[in-house]
Write a structure and sequence with these properties.
By secondary structure, the chain is α+β, with helices and mostly antiparallel strands. It is built from 12 helices and 13 strands.
């Protein structure tokens, strides 16, 4: 076998492979003989089918299979011998004009790029910090109390107030015409919780049981209902039922009902703090990791293998089509989705993946067995039966690989933070959690 390697453009390479015809022919004959002992053809006993009939029926497919195998093997050997890190799948085609007794093939492919990471000591990163304070714990307790609230009928003279639950009938019209989703009977919502538009809630405030009211409502331009967004509707609302909400007191009984092992208020607060600490740690890790990866990519120079980018685009299109299918879109698998929609995101993902992989390899930041074990144990600790969760992770190589990736990214984050110019920014619990 002879091999020549050419550089076409940036990351694109071409290998020309020359194989002896006899090598192909001998392998085809060998596989046909093996096949003749297995195939069943009417009129012949098993193992007694003449070779010329086997060759006539299966020769083309066997030759195609052999060519693929032999050329593929030759390509892999050539890539290894020439220290080529192949990215994606090669495009292989037979080449005309080969010497007598030879077959020639061109394999065009891309190689992984050389990644040049700049001076990380010049990178600037804002590292977020946060802590769980008493206010965050109290807010969580209030949410738990609200989940267990009860409602009691108000008197006929009472007026709807914030935190009351109202039951209403309503009809909305735009230019005198009803619109889809613009009417309901016996509709319930708690005033002040944002389930309805503020103007709608404001109109209901102060109403009494049996009272009706008509009012205009301007839908926001970005309203999710595109047919009514930016339009003004006239609503008529009738209040049919009015209930006041009662929150349970923060007592040991409430703590017990929430499954707190200690069965008291202090135990409840301790459990909440523990869970919030875990949530804060996870949020901070995710946000700081993203900042680190962005800084790392900005310090890196590399060409992108377009074959890898295209594979990522194809994967993202498949995910999008699957999402459309789940939403009930007919023939979602045939939906025309242009590559350009996902190209910027795909390029960013590929760029980030290549830079991270290069740094991991260069600085030996691979996840260790002990790190993976510690990560799994930490994740399992929040479950009722940690041992079962640990066993669940170790029972599936795919799940283990996902944990390994998390640990590796954490190693990369710590390495870059140790090298870069880092400023810490303390953010509030609500800001970190995306709450107002």
């Amino acid at each position: 076998m002879s091999v020549t390697v050419e550089t076409l453009e940036k990351l694109e390479r071409k290998i020309t492979l020359t194989l002896p015809v006899d090598t192909i022919r001998h392998e085809v004959d060998s596989r046909l003989k093996k096949l003749s002992r297995q195939v069943k053809i009417d009129g012949f006993r098993p193992g007694k089918v003449p070779m010329n009939i086997v060759a006539q029926r299966y020769g083309y497919s066997v030759q195609y299979e052999v060519m693929n195998d032999k050329v593929g093997e030759a390509f892999q050997v050539a890539a290894v011998e020439n220290n080529l890190r192949v990215a994606g799948q090669p495009r292989i085609s037979e080449k005309e004009g080969a010497p007598e007794g030879q077959m020639a093939f061109d394999a065009i492919f891309e190689v992984y790029p050389e990644v040049k990471i700049g001076d990380l000591s010049q990178a600037t990163i804002e590292k977020l910090t946060a802590e769980v304070n008493d206010e965050a714990i109290q807010k969580t307790i209030d949410i738990l109390r609200k989940q267990r609230r009860t409602f009691a009928q108000r008197s006929l003279e009472s007026a709807a107030a914030k935190n009351d639950r109202v039951t209403i009938d309503f009809v909305g019209k735009i230019d005198g015409e009803p619109f889809e989703g613009g009417h309901a009977n016996d509709f319930q919502f708690v005033v002040g919780e944002g389930q309805m538009l503020k103007e709608f809630e404001d109109a209901v405030l102060g109403m009494k049981i049996g009272e009706s009211k008509t009012f205009p409502l301007l839908f926001p331009e970005d309203y999710h209902g595109k047919d009514v967004a930016g339009k003004t509707a006239d609503f008529m609302v009738t209040l049919k039922k009015l209930e006041v909400s009662h929150l349970p007191e923060l007592t040991d009984e409430l703590a017990k009902s929430l499954g707190v092992s200690d069965g008291n208020v202090e135990g409840l607060k301790a459990d909440i703090r523990k869970n919030l600490d875990r949530e804060v740690k996870g949020r901070l890790m995710a946000k700081n990791k993203q900042a680190v990866l962005q800084a790392l990519v900005e310090k890196a120079e590399l060409d992108l293998p377009q074959s890898i980018v295209q594979s990522e685009i194809n994967r993202m299109i498949d995910v999008a089509r699957e999402d459309l299918k789940k939403r009930g879109i007919k023939e979602a698998d045939k939906a025309p989705i242009p590559d350009d929609i996902f190209r910027p995101q795909a390029e960013q993902r590929v760029r980030m993946g290549l830079v991270v992989s290069d740094l991991v390899r260069a600085k030996e930041l691979q996840a260790t067995v002990d790190q993976i074990k510690a990560q799994i144990e930490e994740m399992a600790a929040s479950y009722e039966k940690p041992a079962d969760v640990i066993k669940w992770y170790y029972s599936d190589p795919q799940r283990l690989a996902e944990v390994e990736a998390v640990v590796m990214e954490a190693n990369v984050t710590q390495h870059v933070l140790s090298m870069a110019q880092v400023t810490e920014k303390l953010v509030s619990f609500d800001e970190l959690m995306g709450q107002s």
